[in-house]
Every structure is written in structure tokens, then in C-alpha cells.
Automatic annotation (TrEMBL):
It holds the Pfam family Glyco_hydro_30C. Residues 643-772 form the CBM6 domain. InterPro entries: Cadherin-like_sf, CBM6, Cellulose-bd_IV, Galactose-bd-like_sf, GH, GH30_C, Glyco_hydro_30, Glyco_hydro_30_TIM-barrel. Keywords: Glycosidase, Hydrolase, Signal. Coiled coil: none annotated. This is Carbohydrate-binding protein. The keyword Hydrolase applies. PANTHER family: GLUCOSYLCERAMIDASE, LYSOSOMAL ACID GLUCOSYLCERAMIDASE. Belongs to the glycosyl hydrolase 30 family. Residues 1-20 form the signal peptide. The keyword Zinc does not apply. It comes from Kribbella deserti.
Length: 774
């Protein structure tokens, strides 16, 4: 989700994934996809403290020293791409040296999560047409760099569009069932044709991808039904102001009730036409971004129609003897559910209907609006796999975060442009009579993953590709994610394993220095050093403790506590294990200011945001786990000099609506994991500062600006009387998740005081502000 209507926001696409080639659908209907029986025991298997086992982790090791070899590679950019790391060895946990490490990663194979389906991009007409402006040799080189698992990034999941999306090279927009003049309906689909895809080299591109990555899989989405199946007989979107509003729109073009069945058959005809050309499409999405209020190809489809269409598609697919999966939703987190909003579409309601629930194999999401945790909630609530079918976020940290939130796949949207960032036909305009040729001439997206220079017929890629390859090259549909500890000291992780307990760990080090990490799995561990600012992937055969005959560890309860914002408080977790297994403490989510020692269970609280925290902690012996919740009340205090005032810790705000956008954005690149977005002139946020001594201080604003241009005098700090104390410009930082510090000076009186961060203009994200002694 980006503020200034980043094109992305609207570039829709739907996707889903599938692991067709491999057979087994991704654990439909089961939450814990794993193949082992050793499922996570989320609750406490042994209630009560009836055990006499010693408190604290017991150590039982055979002193055999080195066990499995751990091989690794890392990427920190194009110069260091997929480079080997020194081999390290698993030890029994007592012989890896007691030496301190900067971070501990706890793997809990007793908590199996989602099956992996892949990372990749869309084969929209714009991207494909740009790839076909390369020489054949250069095009081969580009495809290999993107998809070849040996020499390239290994992308394996691709999204096709069923007819025209918003991004095309050659106008006009089209469906697969365009009717000749004088014909108004085609229930027999006799005018159906995918010839346009053939002419646009979409099939050729699929073939090229298949040549270099035989494991590639494909899903497909339609942006709209053909015009004749709609109430307004128009393929592109058509919007109107909501009655009584001057700013909010709705989509006028709806699916005709009597066309639900023929639209489902239209999908099946597409699947059959592609199959005839040797392209297996293993998943359909119900419709790209249903109901979005845009004028590019789009369609409204009510909740009731979504239910009926889902059932109709499933029926038509099965009648055709196909096993194609159906992904529903294919829209933002926010549109599925948002507990804080009265305006969300709440499309999760389609699952109120048992038949729809049965017809749906997965839920597809886009990230442009709402809280990504909705994915994990949806997975847990429905048991359906969740997929990121369309995203413009190229941050590998976000990919890692989304996999931790149970996404099975990650498919980027429209990632190949020409040297100017064209040719595209996306627009935020609500003008139904828009000049699409003009939009195509003027709409530029300069910083996508692949840039094709149409003059030299060569291409370049963004540096993020290499870190993405640290996932895609090594993880495949044979892998299921296993739960693991949250980010600690700048090191985050996501862990997968296959049926044979071969593990793949991706560790991200956001520190500017190499960071030592211990990776703990049951009674074993290994140590490694993750290079600075890099993503590293480790592979080894794990020794997963057997659940047979095991007694699960038991965590003692911790009473609720109240602490002061910015002050430090210690808690201690204690656990027992009847088998005296080696235990590790971990948390899957830790808010900023909370840390946990994996070995001792010591919890340190130094919260930066006031309010209620519901912390969950776990202990595992590798075969089972136990979890407790601790309620922490953080009493608000003024931010002292030297501490960050997180943007999200505001005490008051004006200009943002709580019922609408989530302007507090989750962002792994931001301090505290959150930032304030959607800034605009006149909006403001207030913070309480506690200045011990009057004086002139350094004032730091941590900001991101993805507009591509500096925002002059964008933000000011004002005192309680409204006087401007300081004002700064926000440079182009290169992206909405790319933060930089802007410094100025400010003179403040002593004492507690409320200051206002005032948006003189918009066009930036705010992560935090901080006063420091000069
Ligand atoms: Ca045990
Ligand atoms: Ca922040």
C-alpha cells in the first residue's frame, strides 16, 4: 500500500499459486500442511504443574561433536550474488562453544505451517512486450537470470492475465470474447479466441520460462468478464460517485446474474486453450480486485455473485476433467477483513456459504491496503492456503515477512518496463472518457525489477533480484515452513523443511556489520556469521526429535504486568520438561522494545509505544511446544532526549481517518516495524517529549519518499502554541520502504511538552523522530 497512489496500488492482478507439477495440492483444508504427524501442540498438552522435572533447560548430549554439514550462500547485491559461505557443522549443542553470538534463531519443527509454492512475476502484456524488444540472445539471458534455478534467481510462479489487464502495450483493451458488430450475446462462446496472447508472445514467453525452469507453474486472473456479460456492456471499468459523496466512488459495471455460468465456462475455455498449447494453468483467481473503483478493466461482483461464481467455476472445471484450483478474493488485505474499519468490503463473508468454502482452494491477497497479518488470520480461520498473487513490493525483507505470515507464494506485478518506465496504461483518474493513448504516453514506472533498453536492446535488473534468489533458488513445493523465532538484533529468518527433514533457513542481516548467529533445532545447533546487509540461505539435514514417547515442555505462567514507556523491566520465563530435553524459548512476534533470551527465558521490556501489549511466548524441545500469553500495560511517558519517538506512538493526530486507510503501516524496514503513511498537507501528529534540560538539540526525522522527487519544506515541528520550531525537506529516498535520516536543530524548553509534527506537504512516510544532544 503506498500513499501517493503509487501506480502499484492499482495495478491489480490476481494470482495464486499452485504446485501443479508436483501433484499434491497445497494442503487445502488443512492448516498445518506438513506431512509428518508431529503436529504442533499449540495448547498446553500437560496442564498443571504435576511434573517434578528441573526448572530450566536440561542438557543431554552425546559429545560426538560435529554432525551434519551446513552449506550456505549469500547475496548482498550484484557483486556478491549467490556466493558460497564457509561450510559449518551442526553440533549437539554443548560443543558449539558457549561463546556469545549476536542473535539466536530458534526453529520449532513441532509447529508446521504453510507449504511453499513459489516466487515469481506476472506475464502481463507490458512486461512481455518489453522482453520481446530484446535480441533473442539477450532475451534468453534475461529469462535465465530470472528463472534458472542453477544460474539465475530460480523464479517459479507466474501469473497470466485472462484477457487484458490494465497494463498493455497495444490498445484497445480486450477480452477473449469480443463480438462482431450486430452480435450482442455469445452464450455458446463461439467467438472465443486467445489469438491475441499468441500474437503478443505470451505463450512464447511461457515456453522460454519452461525451458529454463521446468518446475515453473502458472496461475491466471481476469480483470473483467467480456463486455457483453456485464450490466453496462463495457469491458473497461466505469465509476460513479457514491451517492452523497464528493470523493468516494464505486464500480458501475457489474456481472450480469444470467452470465455467471457462461463466465465460468469462459474461464474453462481459457484453461483448455492454454492446455492445447502445452501450458498447464494450475489455478484461477475468481476475479482480479473485485469491485475496485477504477476505469481500467475492472468489474463489480457482489458477495452473493462471488459465492455463485466460485461454485460455478469449480463445477465447470471439474466437468472439464481438470484439477485447476480456485483462489478467491485476489484483493487487498483490507478488503478481506479489517477489524478497525467500517468501510472494508469484508469479502471474507463469502465463506459464510459452505459451498463457496468448499469450492475455494485458497485465498489470494494484494498488499496495497491493510494489515498483512490478515493473511495469517485467514489461514488460521479458514484452513485455506493464502497467496500473495500481486505485489509491487520488491523488498526481500517484505518477502521474508510475508512468508512468516503464512503466504505460500509471492508474485510480483508488471516488473519489466522500458528505459523510460513505459509503456503502460494504468491511471488513478476517475474520468470514464479518459484518453488511454495519452495515459500510455505519460504513465511511467521507472524502477521495476527489469529495465529493457529498447535502443541498445539490453536489460538491467534491480539489486533486489539476488536476495530474492536466496529464497527461490533453494525453496520449492516440497517444502513446508516451520515456525521460528522473531527478528532479533537485526537478524530475521524464515525456515522451511522437506519430508526428509532437510532444512532450508533464510537469514537476513540488516546490520551494516557481519553478525554471528546460533541456529537452534531441538538439542542441536550451529553457528554462522551472516555477512553485512545480506540474505543468506543455509541447508542441512536436521535431526528432528521424535514426538513418540516425548513429554511436551510446560511453560509456567507469568502474571500481567504494568510498565512505563521507555523504562526497562525484566521478566523470567520458566519451563519444565519431564524428559530433561534441551529447551529453547522463542516468540513468533515480538513488538519493538521486547527481547527474549532463547536459552534462559529472560524477557527484557523497554517499550517505545504506550498501550496494551499481548505477548505470546513459547518453549520447545523440538518435538512439541507450549505457549503462554502475557498482558503488558505500557503507561505513557514523554520521550526523553536520546530515544526515538516512533511515529506510530503519536498521542493525537488530525487528518487521517481511523475508519479508512491504515495509515499506521507495517513495514519491516521501519523502526519498530511500523511507520505513518499517507501524509498530505495539513495533517498532523502530536508527540509528548520529556526534555530534562532546556537547550538546542539535534532533531532527526526518519523518512522515506518514493515519489522520485524531493519534497521541499515537507514537514515541520511545532510547539503547543503552533509556532514552527523547525522545518525540513524530505529527499527522494528511492522508495517508500527506503528510509533516510534528515537532521536539523531545534531549541526546546525544559519539561514535558507536546509537540506537533505538521505535514506542510505530503509525499513522505515517517518512521520516527528523535532528539539528541548536539
Ligand atoms: Ca520433552
Ligand atoms: Ca517506526
Amino acid at each position: 500500500m503506498r500513499r501517493t497512489f503509487t501506480a502499484a496500488a492499482v495495478m491489480t492482478a490476481a494470482a495464486g499459486l499452485v504446485l501443479a507439477a508436483v501433484g499434491q495440492p497445497a494442503s487445502a483444508g488443512r492448516l498445518m500442511a506438513g506431512n509428518d504427524a508431529q503436529r504442533a501442540s499449540a495448547g498446553r498438552p500437560l496442564a498443571g504443574n504435576d511434573l517434578q522435572a528441573a526448572a530450566g533447560p536440561a542438557v543431554v548430549g552425546d559429545q560426538s561433536g560435529r554432525r551434519a554439514a551446513v552449506t550456505g550462500t549469500y547475496s548482498s547485491g550484484p557483486a556478491q550474488a549467490w556466493q558460497p559461505l564457509p561450510t559449518t557443522y551442526v553440533t549437539d549443542g554443548t560443543s558449539d562453544g558457549a561463546g556469545g553470538v549476536d542473535a539466536t534463531v530458534v526453529i520449532d519443527p513441532s509447529a508446521l505451517r504453510q507449504r511453499y509454492t513459489g516466487i515469481g512475476f506476472s506475464l502481463d502484456e507490458t512486461s512481455v512486450s518489453n522482453l520481446w524488444k530484446l535480441t533473442p540472445a539477450e532475451r534468453d539471458r534475461a529469462i535465465r537470470l530470472l528463472v534458472d534455478p542453477k544460474t539465475g534467481a530460480g523464479f517459479e510462479r507466474f501469473r497470466l492475465t485472462i484477457g487484458s489487464p490494465d497494463l498493455i502495450e497495444h490498445l484497445p483493451f480486450w477480452s477473449y470474447d469480443e463480438l462482431p458488430a450486430g452480435v450482442t450475446e455469445d452464450f455458446g462462446l463461439k467467438y472465443f479466441s486467445i489469438e491475441r496472447d499468441v500474437d503478443a508472445h505470451i505463450i512464447d514467453t511461457v515456453k522460454l520460462i519452461q525451458r529454463y525452469n521446468p518446475r515453473a507453474t502458472f496461475l491466471a486472473s481476469a480483470w473483467s468478464a467480456p463486455a457483453w456479460m456485464k450490466t453496462n456492456n463495457r469491458f473497461t471499468g466505469e465509476v460513479a460517485l457514491l451517492p452523497g459523496s464528493t470523493t468516494a466512488y464505486y464500480q458501475v459495471g457489474k456481472l450480469r446474474d444470467d452470465c455467471i455460468d457462461v463466465f465460468a465456462r469462459y474461464y474453462v475455455k481459457f484453461l483448455q486453450a492454454y492446455a492445447k498449447l502445452g501450458v498447464k494453468v494450475d489455478a484461477l483467481t475468481l476475479l482480479n480486485e473485485p469491485g475496485i473503483d477504477v476505469v481500467y478493466p475492472a468489474m463489480d461482483i457482489s458477495i452473493d455473485q462471488q459465492k455463485k461464481l466460485a461454485v460455478a467455476i469449480k463445477r465447470a472445471v471439474e466437468r472439464a476433467g481438470l484439477r485447476t484450483e480456485l483462489y478467491v478474493h485476489d484483493f487487498n488485505f483490507y478488503d478481506w477483513r479489517d477489524p478497525n474499519s467500517t468501510q472494508t468490503k469484508n469479502y471474507h463473508r463469502i465463506f459464510d456459504d459452505p459451498q463457496t468454502r468448499r469450492a475455494a482452494d485458497a485465498i489470494a491477497f494484494h498488499p496495497y491496503w491493510g494489515d498483512p497479518k490478515v493473511m495469517r488470520d485467514a489461514y488460521e480461520q479458514t484452513g485455506k492456503p493464502v497467496h500473495m498473487t500481486e505485489t509491487n513490493i520488491l523488498s526481500p525483507a517484505t518477502i521474508l515477512e510475508y512468508f512468516r505470515l503464512d503466504a505460500s507464494s509471492y508474485v510480483m506485478w508488471a516488473q519489466a518496463t522500458d528505459q523510460d518506465g513505459g509503456t503502460l496504461h494504468w491511471t488513478p483518474s476517475k474520468d470514464n472518457n479518459i484518453d488511454w493513448a495519452e495515459v500510455g504516453r505519460t504513465m511511467k514506472w521507472p524502477n521495476r525489477l527489469v529495465k529493457v533498453n529498447t535502443t541498445t536492446q539490453t536489460f538491467t535488473v534491480r539489486d533486489e533480484l539476488y536476495a530474492m534468489g536466496q529464497f527461490a533458488k533453494y525453496v520449492g513445493p516440497e517444502h513446508v515452513r516451520v515456525e521460528s523465532s522473531a527478528t532479533v538484533n537485526g537478524v530475521s529468518n524464515v525456515i522451511f523443511k522437506d519430508r526428509g527433514d532437510r532444512f532450508v533457513a533464510i537469514l537476513a542481516n540488516s546490520n551494516a556489520t557481519p553478525t554471528t548467529v546460533r541456529v537452534v533445532l531441538g538439542g542441536e545447533s550451529f553457528k554462522t556469521t551472516v555477512p553485512a546487509n545480506s540474505f543468506a540461505t543455509y541447508r542441512w539435514k536436521g535431526d528432528v526429535p521424535s514426538a513418540r514417547g516425548n513429554h511436551a515442555p510446560v511453560l509456567g505462567g507469568v502474571p500481567d504486568v504494568a510498565v512505563d514507556q521507555y523504562s526497562t523491566t525484566q521478566l523470567k520465563l520458566t519451563a519444565t520438561d519431564r524428559d530433561r530435553d534441551r529447551l529453547a524459548y522463542y516468540a513468533t512476534d515480538l513488538p519493538a522494545g521486547v527481547s527474549l533470551d532463547a536459552r534462559t527465558g529472560a524477557v527484557t521490556l523497554k517499550p517505545t509505544v504506550a498501550g496494551e501489549l499481548k505477548l505470546k511466548f513459547r518453549v520447545t524441545d523440538g518435538a512439541a511446544n507450549d505457549e503462554i500469553a502475557v498482558q503488558v500495560t505500557v503507561r505513557p511517558q514523554g520521550t526523553p532526549v536520546g530515544e526515538k519517538a516512533e511515529a506510530e506512538s503519536y498521542v493525537a493526530q488530525s487528518g487521517w481517518t481511523d475508519g479508512g486507510a491504515d495509515f499506521v503501516e507495517n513495514n519491516p524496514a521501519a523502526s519498530g516495524g511500523k511507520n505513518i503513511g499517507w501524509t498530505a498537507p495539513g495533517k498532523w501528529l502530536q508527540y509528548r517529549l520529556d526534555v530534562a534540560q532546556a537547550g538546542t538539540y539535534d532533531l532527526e526525522f526518519r523518512v522515506a519518499n518514493g515519489t522520485g522527487a524531493v519534497a521541499p519544506d515537507a514537514v515541520s515541528l511545532r510547539d503547543s502554541a503552533g509556532a514552527v520550531l523547525a522545518k525540513v525537506s524530505v529527499p527522494d529516498t528511492g522508495g517508500w520502504a527506503t528510509y533516510q535520516s534528515v537532521h536539523t536543530q531545534v531549541t526546546l524548553p525544559a519539561g514535558e511538552q507536546v509537540v506537533t509534527v505538521f505535514c506542510e506537504t505530503g509525499g513522505f512516510n515517517l518512521d520516527y523522530l528523535k532528539l539528541s544532544a548536539r
